[in-house]
Design brief:
Number of domains: 1
Order of helices and strands: HEEHEEHHEEHEEH
Number of strands: 8
Largest sheet: 8 strands, antiparallel
Helix content: 40-55%
CATH topology: Chemotaxis protein chec
Number of helices: 6
Distance between the termini: 9 Å
CATH superfamily: CheC-like
Shape: globular
CATH architecture: 3-Layer(aba) Sandwich
Strand content: 25-35%
Structural class: alpha+beta
Oligomer: single chain
CATH class: Alpha Beta
Length: 200
């Protein structure tokens, strides 16, 4: 697939999927917190996998990565990645505290929220494509971006050259959270998704 041939119609469709997923995730987050949570319109891009680290601030940038496997009709990975500042803001939002460390309670809360947010995106994609897509139990790591991104490359080897990148900014009071979600399907699955969306 030539990345330049992925036209504006596809971006429109993927943006719609992202809007649905983000909206549902924000509603769930607001209900969990019993507080108002606002959200910017998601920024959607199709990009080369090799350029993902740059989006995150470079391979040595410390990030929190929540990783889930995609199963059934679509195989691959979905990763929800936060810079450390956003991760702390999200845990402080969830736990109603002001802390500067990612302790065990914070890690557990992040894993659960990453699972919820990723699941809403996957459900939106499943709904609009008619494909059955389920996700695994999430795993979380705090590490350099390069190490986090090596997980799907090592596990699958032949992943798609292109990934779907969705950036969403959540805000609650003084807490601002910039969430980077990457859908990284295997090559066959990527083409299957595009076909179902009427792009290929």
């Amino acid at each position: 697939m030539d990345i330049d041939c992925l036209n504006s119609r596809m971006i429109d469709i993927l943006t719609e999927i992202s809007n649905i997923g983000s909206g549902n995730a924000v509603t769930a987050l607001a209900n969990m917190l019993s507080k108002k949570v606002s959200m910017t319109v998601p920024r959607v891009r199709i990009m080369e996998f090799k350029d993902v680290a740059e989006i995150l601030g470079g391979e040595e940038e410390l990030v929190v990565g929540i990783y889930l496997e995609l199963k059934d009709d679509v195989t691959g990975n979905i990763m929800f990645i936060l810079d450390k500042s956003s991760a702390l803001n999200l845990t402080n939002m969830l736990l109603n505290r002001k802390d500067h460390e990612l302790d065990e309670i914070a890690i557990s809360a992040l894993s659960e929220v990453g699972n919820i947010i990723s699941s809403f995106y996957v459900n939106s994609l499943s709904m609009l494509t008619g494909l059955k897509i389920t996700v695994s139990v999430p795993s979380l790591a705090v590490d350099m971006a390069g190490a986090i991104l090596s997980v799907p490359a090592i596990q699958f080897g032949l992943i798609a050259d292109q990934v779907l990148f969705i950036e969403t900014v959540f805000e609650e009071g003084e807490n601002l959270v910039r969430g980077n979600l990457f859908l990284i399907p295997e090559m066959d699955s990527f083409e299957k998704i595009l076909s179902k969306l009427g792009v290929l």
